[in-house]
């Protein structure tokens, strides 16, 4: 009955939904920056630097980094992006030609007796490529709209971040004080572990993604791939998506390399494999460790589910959200067992 009534009075909650959508993005960005910088602020305050001064120093350093990106890297990225967009028609023509050559090759003819490959042979690849390009073009405007929205709310992010860094440590005690005294100890442990989980994940993923971006960029320079900085930046950003991110980030580089030669495309794939091997066996264990304790199959399920509900944002936030939920459920189960045991002992 409650669900049925809620469905018919949804308009009452519409202003609240609009408010949440409006403040969601700046608070998420500010929270991301908070967990990225809180360790540095705490380290500076440990060495007797006033907290406000430490926060201002962080803002100055971040501002200088942004200035460097704007003055040095942004023009290069803009030039490469403009050139890439201008060459898309040529890329489509060249890619269609290579796909046609592949269909007519003797290697493909070896498998034509199989129904699957016969379907591939009769498929209109030009239509497929045109459809992919049309989809990218449509989403490009959505992306540009998101960038414009980010610029509008960007001025609020530093203000939110400042108060998070300055007064964020007082939030946990205030939340704990609202609970009954017998629950405060367990609540304090849950909030502390949640805070540590988010901090570990964000700081670790930033370090790992930066490493992947630099390593891939060096590899692209070695093989002489066009638009190396832009393609490496794409790979670095998509690396925030566990498991699937590196593959998604490599697809544009493989397409660009395939236009030059199939050998260069293979070189791009080799670079991706090497970078991910080093990440999974050296960088990620060193930076992230095994503190998240999430099984790979669970991560895949979380990504698929979060992607269905929230799209790209859901995919990026799905794993840390699951890690937080796991902490809450684990502590709740443990706390409930302890209460039952104490009750039995008392009776």
Could you characterize the architecture of this molecule?
This protein is mainly α and 347 residues long. The chain has 14 helices and no strands. The protein has helices at 2-8, 10-46, 51-86, 88-104, 106-109, 115-121, 125-153, 156-167, 171-177, 181-223, 228-238, 245-260, 262-287, 296-346. The longest helix has 51 residues, at 296-346.
* Structural class estimated from helices and strands: mainly alpha
Which stretches of 5+ consecutive residues score pLDDT under 50? none
Q: What is the terminal separation in angstroms?
A: 40 Å
User: How much strand?
Assistant: under 5%
Summary tags:
347 residues; mainly alpha
Short description:
By secondary structure, the protein is mainly alpha-helical. The chain is 87% helix and 0% strand.
Give the secondary structure arrangement, pairings included:
Layout: H1 2-8, H2 10-46, H3 51-86, H4 88-104, H5 106-109, H6 115-121, H7 125-153, H8 156-167, H9 171-177, H10 181-223, H11 228-238, H12 245-260, H13 262-287, H14 296-346
Helix pairs in contact: 2-3, 2-8, 3-8, 4-7, 4-12, 9-10, 10-11, 10-13, 10-14, 11-12, 12-13
């Amino acid at each position: 009955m409650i669900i049925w009534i809620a469905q018919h009075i949804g308009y009452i909650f519409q202003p609240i939904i609009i408010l949440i959508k409006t403040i969601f993005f700046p608070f998420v960005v500010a929270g991301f920056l908070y967990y990225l910088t809180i360790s540095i602020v705490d380290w500076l305050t440990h060495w007797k630097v006033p907290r406000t001064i430490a926060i201002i120093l962080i803002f100055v350093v971040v501002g200088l980094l942004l200035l460097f990106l704007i003055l040095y890297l942004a023009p290069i990225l803009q030039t490469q992006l403009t050139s890439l967009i201008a060459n898309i028609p040529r890329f489509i023509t060249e890619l269609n030609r290579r796909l046609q050559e592949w269909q007519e090759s003797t290697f493909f003819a070896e498998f034509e007796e199989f129904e699957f490959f016969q379907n591939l042979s009769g498929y209109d690849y030009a239509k497929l490529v045109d459809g992919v390009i049309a989809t990218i073009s449509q989403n490009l405007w959505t992306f540009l709209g998101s960038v414009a929205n980010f610029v509008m709310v960007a001025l609020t992010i530093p203000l939110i971040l400042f108060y998070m860094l300055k007064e964020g440590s007082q939030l946990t005690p205030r939340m704990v004080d609202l609970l009954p005294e017998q629950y405060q100890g367990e609540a304090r442990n849950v909030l502390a572990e949640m805070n540590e989980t988010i901090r570990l994940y964000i700081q670790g993923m930033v370090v790992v993604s930066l490493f992947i971006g630099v390593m891939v960029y060096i590899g692209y320079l070695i093989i002489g791939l066009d638009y190396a900085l832009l393609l490496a930046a794409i790979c670095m950003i998509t690396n925030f998506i566990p498991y699937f991110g590196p593959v998604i980030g490599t697809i544009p580089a493989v397409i660009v390399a395939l236009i030059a030669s199939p050998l260069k495309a293979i070189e791009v794939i080799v670079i991706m494999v090497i970078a991910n091997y080093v990440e999974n066996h050296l960088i990620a264990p060193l930076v992230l460790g095994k503190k998240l304790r999430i099984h790979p199959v669970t991560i895949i399920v979380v990504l698929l589910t979060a992607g269905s509900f929230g799209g790209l944002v859901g995919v990026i936030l799905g794993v840390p959200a699951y890690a937080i939920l796991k902490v809450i459920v684990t502590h709740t189960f443990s706390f409930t067992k302890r209460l039952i045991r104490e009750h039995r002992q008392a009776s």
